[in-house]
From TrEMBL:
CDD domains: bZIP. Residues 296-384 are annotated as: Disordered. Residues 357-374 have a biased composition (Polar residues). The keyword Coiled coil applies. It comes from Amphora coffeiformis. Keywords: Coiled coil. This is Uncharacterized protein. Residues 333-348 have a biased composition (Low complexity).
Length: 453
């Protein structure tokens, strides 16, 4: 990352820490400082996506991925929290795609698609909060309600939305209970299911402390339920592998009794399992509440870069002061934003035909001076598209450089490891040769003794 850009980001992080101190929240300021220090020490290959987000949408970084959330999730380990935080942004880029990952995770005008909202209304996923504040929240999953409506990474996008907007502080620090309902409609297995399960270990602001698989007692397709439970159990054992519980009962009343014994609040599982949750009514009310909250709190930045990567300053030969102030241009999404007039403190891209026409109406001396200034400006201030192309080229060159640098470091470490292993093998070979010589001497001695007898 460019030195000037890195200094700007460091200044931004320090100002965020200072805001906590100014508000009297010294504890959170200390946490943010420790996590930010750890992030700065991580390799560029891990922090690239996080720094892009911090540069383009710092308010979203702080509101949706606050360092304190990840600090709680890692039980006070700032280094692990920093690693989890930066990997969360890399996961977010993969899940939402280049066009949406820098937008707020909202139902309207955000990272979710309209089809995602329709799928959310069907109720395949829900985050339920028990009445006891000292109990963890329950992430309810019912694959039977997907009904083939999802596309791409819709499951992951909905999980991001629910966890960003519904997870409380207790569940961040103590984990979430996952409750999976299995029926004869199937579990809609996808290739990336295992990777998403693995991501909860290291890349999300929460972790799953226990996963409970419950066969739907109201569904009589016992063979199909057994088959789908076995498939899901195999996948979870491979990619997750701990604290797995299966519940197999014939009636909702018996299922309720088992879930209560496992510590679940009846308000956190639906009536089909014997619980008190009216899922349709709950989802309707929850979505209404979310829409109202979004309407009341409009984010400060909705129009964010979609396709273009972040830009960085390009060193030029003796650039004018105006060009120095605007050497990192703002990339505007031309699909959604109308072109704006250049600011007074930014360099103006001159049109040669217009300039020559204007100069012809002036006295000869002033015309020559203006023409000279025009030529200099044309040389010093390139066309806007050319400027953006150069900036992008410089950014990708730096990224390629650091990627290759990391690869060289890894190869160097591997070379050192192989040298040490080779040295150990050489010593082991010498030891074996010594043992062979000793064995031959012992054999000769035994033969000599037997010959004397």
């Amino acid at each position: 990352m460019d030195k000037g850009r890195l200094e700007a980001i460091n200044t931004m992080q320090l100002s965020i820490e200072g805001q906590f101190v100014a508000n009297g929240n010294v504890e959170n300021a200390t946490i943010v400082k420790h996590v930010n220090d750890a992030i700065r020490a991580l390799p560029t290959s891990l922090t690239n996506d996080y720094f892009i987000a911090l540069d383009h949408c710092p308010e979203i970084v702080m509101s949706e991925t606050h360092p304190v959330k990840f600090f709680r999730c890692e039980h006070g380990n700032s280094w692990a929290a920093a690693l989890r935080l930066v990997q969360n942004w890399s996961l977010r880029r993969h899940v939402f795609g280049e066009e949406y990952w820098l937008k707020p995770v909202r139902l309207r005008n955000g990272a979710l698609r309209s089809k995602d909202v329709e799928l959310l209304k069907e109720g395949p996923f829900a985050l339920l909060t028990p009445s006891d504040p000292q109990r963890s929240q329950v992430f309810l999953t019912d694959f039977g309600r997907l009904q083939g409506l999802e596309e791409g990474t819709a499951r992951q996008r909905l999980m991001f939305y629910i966890m960003v907007n519904g997870l409380n502080a207790f569940s961040q620090g103590n984990g979430v209970d996952a409750l999976v309902i299995i029926n004869g409609d199937g579990i809609k297995m996808k290739p990336d299911n295992g990777r998403m399960v693995q991501a909860t270990h290291t890349k999300t602001a929460f972790y799953v402390k226990r996963c409970v698989l419950v066969r739907d007692p109201t569904d009589r397709r016992a063979t199909l339920k057994y088959l789908f439970e076995t498939m899901l159990l195999t996948m979870l054992q491979r990619f997750w592998g701990h604290n797995l519980v299966t519940v197999v009962e014939d009636t909702p009343a018996e299922t309720r009794k088992v879930l209560e014994n496992l510590g679940f609040d009846p308000a956190t599982f639906p009536t089909q399992l014997g619980g008190d949750l009216d899922r349709e009514n709950y989802i309707h009310q929850w979505l209404e509440q979310q829409f109202k909250m979004e309407d009341a709190t409009t984010p400060s930045r909705e129009e964010l870069p979609t396709h273009n990567p972040p830009t960085a300053p390009v060193p030029t030969k003796n650039p004018p002061m105006a060009a120095q102030a605007a050497v990192c241009p703002t990339i505007v999404n031309t699909k959604t934003s109308p072109p704006t007039a250049p600011a007074t403190n930014s360099p103006t891209v001159l049109n040669k035909k217009t300039k020559s026409t204007e100069c012809s109406n002036q006295p000869s001396e002033r015309s020559n001076q203006a023409a000279g200034r025009s030529n200099r400006n044309d040389q010093e201030v390139p066309d806007e598209k050319l400027q953006i192309a150069r900036v992008k080229s410089a950014y990708y060159s730096r990224r390629s450089y650091y990627r290759k640098k990391d690869e060289r470091i890894q190869l160097s470490d591997e070379c050192q490891r192989l040298r040490k292993e080779n040295e150990l093998l050489r010593k082991e070979a010498a030891r074996l040769e010594s043992l062979i010589e000793q064995a031959e001497e012992i054999e000769e001695s035994i033969a000599l003794i037997l010959g004397h007898r």
